[in-house]
Amino acid sequence: MNSFIIRSFVRRSGRVTLAQQRALETLWPRYGVPASQTSLDLQELFGRTAAKHLEIGFGMGDTLVNMAKTHPEYDYLGIDVYRPGVGRLLLQLEANQLSNVRVFCADAVEVLQYQLTVSSLDNVYLFFPDPWPRKRHHKRRLVQPEFIQLLAQRMKAGGYLYLATDWQDYAQQMLSVLETSPDFINSVATGGFAPSAAPVERPLTKFEQRGLRLGNKVWNLLYQRQ
After folding, report:
1. By Cβ atoms counted within 10 A, which residue in 13, 47, 89, 96 is the most buried?
2. Active-site residues: which are they?
3. Is 193 annotated for ligand binding?
4. Annotation-wise, does 73 bind a ligand?
5. Is 207 flagged in the annotation as binding?
């Protein structure tokens, strides 16, 4: 396929704690997946046959760990570029002795393009991606037709794509992009936003819990790969 570039993130430096740095040095060989342009065999990566779920932009890792603990029968991939978050996730994986998570510290577009193969993913989660609120930056938003097409190629038929945002105009953009995609069908009969208690379980992120306490609204979208 033709390559494309979405500058969908700012590589925030942040302060890496000593514990997080230790995790990046000692736990990465166990849980981390190096960025490359070589495709992965996910069954071999995890050493078993199981449904493969991907969270794009896991932040500090709380939701990913929650899902992996709740569903040990599934395998989880997490992608993020925020090193303190990657370090914290590695610490959580060790503390909970989780063997069903692997971690990428890389650009999600490049991981999808080069390392993940066609029809290799069952479910994909994209919770609270950078909204790029300024209009002139909207082109940097991750949810664009080209990206959704790439996701569709990597997902199995029947799999779910679950998105959430607390920015209304980004929610409308997500809805517009997905409603015009030939590869996905809205799980909501009316073709609108999904209820918070959707058919696919989604634990609340700490970011979301804080926003809800402040009265912020969250828009959920749930689409199934055709």
Report:
1. 89
2. 130
3. no
4. no
5. yes
